Amino acid sequence: MGPRGNSSGRARLAFLMLTLFTSAAPSYAATDYPSRSRPVTIVVPYAAGGPGDVLSRAVADVLSKEMNGIFIIENKPGASQIIGARNVAKADPDGYTLLLGSTTSLAINPSLKKNLPYDPVKDFEPIALVINSPQYLITRPSFPANSLREFIDLAKKSPDKFTYASVGIGSTPHLAGELLNVLAGLSMRHVPYAGAAPVLNDVIAGHVDLTFTTTVLGSIRAGQVKTLGVTSAEPAQAAPDIPTIASYGMPTFDMGIWMGFLAPAGTPKEIITKLNEGIVAGVKSGALKERMGGAGSEYDPLETSPAEFRAFIDREIPKWQKIIDLVGIQKE
Fold first, then answer.
1. CB contact set of 163 (below 8 Å; sequence gap of 6+)
2. What is the distance, to the nearest Å, from the Cα of residue 314 to the centroid of all Cα atoms in its chain?
3. 3-state DSSP call for residue 226?
4. DSSP letter string over 156-180?
5. Are 95 and 45 within 8 A, CB to CB?
6. Which of 26-30, 112-116, 215-219 has the weakest average pLDDT?
7. Which of 6, 178, 267, 331 has its CA 20 to 30 A from that of 17?
8. Residue 62 belongs to a domain with what CATH number?
9. Is the backbone of residue 328 left (phi > 0), alpha (psi -120 to 50) or beta?
10. End of a domain among 248, 269, 289?
11. 243, 235 contact by CB (below 8 A)
12. Do 63 and 211 belong together in one domain?
C-alpha cells in the first residue's frame, strides 16, 4: 500500500476514534429535562425546618408542577454551609443537582475561610436570586431602651454590660452586631448559639439582650419582642415603620440575608433558562409565596434572571469583604 493508502487509513481510524470518544462523553441535553425517571436534588446546607429549608421545599413544589418533574430536598448542614456547597460544586453539570446558595456560602465564606473547597463564582451557574431580606435588631419588650438611639446611649454609659446573640462566628447576625459595635462605638458582648430557635427564646426570656434576625415580624406584631432598627439602607417594604440603623448616623450600615439557587458550573444554558423560568413563573403566580406558608408573610420572592443573580454575587463578595475587614475578623 502506498503513502496515499496509509494516509487514508489513518484518517479513517482517527475519525472512528473521535466518534467513539464523542459518543462516550456525557451529554446533558435540555430537550427532555427534567426526566420523570430521575429526580432533581436541591441540596440545602441548612437543617430541616429553618427559612432556607422552607424556601427550598416551596421552590421544589413549584418546579415539580411548572416543569412536570420530580424535585427533592437533601439537607446537608454543617461547616458554615461548606459541606452542601462543596457537594454541588463537584456534582455533574447536568441539572440534576442544585444548590440553595446564600449570603454565607457565596459572599461571607470567601472572606472568612482560608481553604474554601469551592469558588463561589467559578464553580456555579446562578439560576435565580429569590430572597433578599433585611435583618431586624430585636430585644425583649421590657428592655430599657425603646429606640436604637436610647440603646446606644445606655450602652455607652455601661460598657460591656449588654449582650447580643448570633447563630455562630461569621454568621450574618454576628457580623451585624460587630458592625454596630464598630460604627456606634459600642462594646456589646457576643454570645454564639447553635441555632436560631434558642436565640429567639433566650432573647424573649431576657437571658441575652439582643439579636439580629429575619423571620420575626410575626413575633414583633404579637408583642413578644420589640425592634430597635432594620439593617437595610432603606425601610423594609414589609415593615416601613421600623427605622433603619443607617438613619442613626451610620449610612454604610446595609446588610441583609439573601438566598438563591445555583447549578454546577458547565450546566447547559438551556437547562439554567428552564429552571429560571419555572421559578419566576412561581413568583409571578403567587404560588411560591403561598407554598412558603407562614414564612411567606416575612418575604417577598424576587423575579431575577441568571445574569442579574451573577451580577449581584459579584457585588456582594467585595461588600462583605469590606465589612469583615472593618470588624477585624481573621480568616480561619
1. 188, 189, 190, 191, 208, 209, 210
2. 14
3. strand
4. HHSTT--EEEESSTTSHHHHHHHHH
5. no
6. 26-30
7. 267
8. 3.40.190.150
9. left
10. 248
11. yes
12. no
Cell 460604627 belongs to 183
Nearest Cα to Cα of residue 88 among 129, 146, 40, 18: 40
What domain count does the chain have? 2
217-269: per-residue pLDDT in tens? 889 999 999 999 999 999 998 899 999 999 999 999 999 999 999 999 999 99
Which residue, 248, 271, 299, sits at the end of a domain? 248
Q: Would you give the DSSP letter of residue 49?
A: T
CA-wise closest residue to 159 among 179, 183, 189: 189
| Burial category of 39 from C-beta neighbours within 10 Å (exposed 0-12, middle 13-18, buried 19 and up) | middle
DSSP 8-state secondary structure symbol assigned to residue 104: I
Same domain, 165 and 204: yes
- The answer to whether 288 and 131 are in contact (CB under 8 A) is no
Quote the domain boundaries for residue 183: 136-248
Residue 244 DSSP symbol: B
Residue 252, C-beta contacts closer than 8 angstroms, at least 6 positions apart: 183, 246
Q: Whole-prediction pTM value? A: 0.86
| Per-residue confidence (pLDDT) for residue 235, from 0 to 100 | 92
For the record, the C-alpha cell of 289 comes out as: 409565596
